[in-house]
Specification:
420 residues, Rossmann fold, 2 domains, 8-stranded mixed sheet, 6-stranded parallel sheet, 16 helices, 14 strands, 16% strand
Length: 420
């Protein structure tokens, strides 16, 4: 299968979980023998064109130059113009079978390519503006993003959500027909998270002295990620278990407010902001920590919880969204979002009970191996691509689509019970 992937993030440009998701998924698809071509945003440390672990990557330069990301609407339109131009040249050279768009920032280009070349479009919705603001769209920009997200799901032949929670939200908020959405979780490559014990031990000694508990948050520093709840809980935790070092790994628009709260709560000697961490360093932080926190108010999936489990670290998460599904069945502990008292209790449970911590670690690793392996995730995505191709063919009587896109049509129609 020839798959054209559109994403505004791709390594080395990684802002959040989306970039890592797209990179891991495309590598897995390429390893299965599919031709995968990603069109994404440029980066000063990466070439314009490269073959990266079997994935063809085209990075588009900003045009016009100097247009800031802060001026979001013009920037998105200009970026999509360049993405569509680059992708058009690729499709004109050799037709693709399917377009896979990741989130609203590439919606304009995705819809344009779909209409120009009569290709089926699959869209993965990683989060929604509605969800990020707990059902409230406070300003014109929020309403515009919400509208574009709806439009992308409308234009797409199939829509992928990362959890049952996200499927239900997207289906309800965007009034999508029942059956258009498929649930495919994010994944992790377990081999990437297998770190030498000696290296982790040395790193742990660099982060915190013996006897000091190490608590980690990793993710974007945004209000909905809930780091402020951890800061309010720290004093209660220390009163029960002794000295605690809280590491905050990531960057985001809520960073200044969190630093001000650290100062107001007089936690400067207990909290360390690490900034953005590259993959290996982030995994070392996961493995060195005694407990990893995902205290989100809103979380479509919760990849950091799965990554922490893969590194052998017990997790405490906000009881919301995809996080609730990840820890269900005793794979982690949860607390009501924004409840710092209950969060402190869950952290203390893990830190004060080594047997519980070991049990959570073992359960978490088994869960990751059984449910979140990237090979299985890639298989599920390919099945959605194939279904989108068939549905596009059935619903498009013009016959304009390339013959090579329909090579497996009869087989898939029979499997899906659509032939007749």
């Amino acid at each position: 299968m020839r798959i054209l992937v559109l994403s505004w993030e791709y390594p080395p440009r990684v802002v959040g979980g989306l970039g890592r998701h797209v990179a891991a998924l495309t590598r897995s698809l390429a390893a299965q023998g599919h031709h995968v071509h990603v069109v994404t945003r440029d980066h000063p440390d990466a070439p314009t064109e490269e073959l990266l672990e079997g994935v063809h990557v085209s990075r588009v330069t900003e045009a016009p130059p100097g247009l800031g990301f802060d001026d979001l609407v013009p920037w998105v339109l200009a970026f999509n113009n360049r993405v569509q131009a680059a992708a058009t040249a690729l499709v004109a050279e050799e037709p693709f079978d399917v377009i896979h768009a990741h989130d609203w920032l590439v919606a304009y280009a995705a819809a344009g390519l779909k209409d120009t070349f009569d290709l089926p479009l699959v869209a993965t919705i990683h989060a929604t503006e509605y969800g990020r603001h707990q059902g409230y769209l406070p300003g014109p920009m929020n309403k515009l993003i919400h509208q574009i997200e709806w439009w992308l799901t409308y234009e797409a032949r199939r829509v992928i959500a990362c959890s049952d929670y996200m499927r239900d939200q997207v289906e309800a908020v965007f009034a999508l027909p029942h059956g258009k959405l498929d649930v495919i979780p994010n994944g992790v490559a377990l081999r990437d998270f297998a770190l030498p014990d000696a290296e982790v031990a040395r790193f742990r000694r660099e982060l915190a002295p013996d006897g000091e508990a190490l608590v980690l948050f990793a993710g974007r520093l945004e209000y909905e990620k809930g780091v402020q709840t951890v800061l309010h809980a720290l004093e209660r935790v220390e009163a029960r278990v002794g000295a605690v070092r809280f590491l905050v790994a990531g960057v985001g628009t809520y960073s200044d407010e969190l630093r001000e709260l650290v100062e107001a709560l007089d936690l400067g000697d207990r909290v360390t902001f690490t900034g953005f961490l590259a993959d290996h360093e982030l995994r070392l932080h996961y493995a060195a920590a005694d407990v990893a926190l995902a205290p989100s108010i809103y979380e479509p999936f919760g990849l950091v919880a799965v990554e922490a489990m893969a590194c052998g670290t017990p997790v405490v998460v906000g009881d919301t969204g995809g996080l609730r599904e990840i820890v269900a069945g005793g794979h982690g502990l949860s607390f009501p979002p924004q409840d710092d008292v209950q969060l402190a209790e869950r952290i203390v449970e893990v830190l004060a009970d080594p047997e519980l911590a070991r049990e959570l670690t073992a359960r978490g690793r088994r869960l990751v191996a059984d449910r979140y392996d990237w090979e299985a995730v890639a298989d599920a995505v390919v099945a959605v691509h194939e279904r989108a191709i068939v549905e596009e063919a059935v619903l498009d009587p013009t016959g304009r689509r390339p013959l090579r896109s329909l090579l497996r049509e009869a087989e898939i129609l029979e499997l899906d019970g659509l032939a007749g």
